[in-house]
Design brief:
With 316 residues, the protein is of the alpha+beta class. It contains eight helices and 19 strands. It has helices at residues 45-59, 78-86, 96-102, 104-109, 185-191, 195-211, 263-272, 298-306; strands spanning 9-20, 24-25, 31-32, 34-35, 40-43, 110-113, 126-129, 132-134, 137-139, 150-152, 166-168, 172-183, 220-230, 245-246, 259-261, 276-283, 288-291, 294-296, 311-313. Strand 2 and strand 3 form a beta hairpin. The mean pLDDT is 91.
Length: 316
Amino acid sequence: MAELVKNNGEILYIYDAKMCNPNGDPDDENRPRMDYERERNLVSDVRLKRYIRDYLQDKFKDKEQQIYITKAEGVVNATERLKVILGKNKVGQEDIPALSEKLIDVRLFGATMPIKADGGRIGSSLTFIGPVQFNWGYSLNRATLVDSVSITSQFAAESGKEQGTIGKDYRVYYSLIAFHGIISARRAEKTGLTEADIALLDEALLKAIPLLATRSKIGQYPRLYLRLEYRDADTFCGDLREYLSLEETTGLREISDVKLRLDGMADCLKSIAPRVARVYCWQHEHLCTLYQGQKVRLPLWLEGVIGKGRVQVLQA
């Protein structure tokens, strides 16, 4: 039987986006989401979870594991989706264990399902809060939008027209986007989240974004991943992004311009080191990380901070 997640965890995930649109805003003509006051590029947690879901769906194609919230079947009725997953016309509370076992994205992120609770009225549903949650990502650098946005098409807007249409294509020059995530052991018990599921989450975050590139999303690559596994179900240290800084925050155009300082994070990690069971990490070879002004590589640096024997390097 798969081992359930028993201890809390915390995630720092950094990827970059060059000359692309990491997350279009439908309320703003699909421009990249921005905090214009602070010049930060924003990416929603929903966008990140979409990458993970799509990667896992491809990985488990035609196998027992499935994705509840999928794009493959287009927009569907949630009730009909549950019937398809279970292969039966009536779905009730007795089916919850089977659904949890089949749906890896529900075990990770939770979901709202149109299943009546005990004594529930018509139209009621059950909500499962996911043990894995991310807040919105934001760029560590000051990001700016590409000035030139007009593109042309060979297709005319109307029949008989001899000229193609002109559209808009909004992108950022460069954005180093960081996410903070948590893994709650107490909620893992509710959805049946296993250690094997977390290993798949690691894999998806390292592989999904480049593999699922589209025309507007090409130019994005993971650069750093860090997952803390605590010794208990009570510990969280907080948003690790607050302890990071860039040597230069303006004028960045590519990964070779980035110098990421780890000094602030060292104090944070040292303070919680006794409560850390293991650290899982990965760093892209082109990302420059600094500690006290010197270049360091994340795995060796973590061993010095957390202690040898507790750092495991992941493979992308």
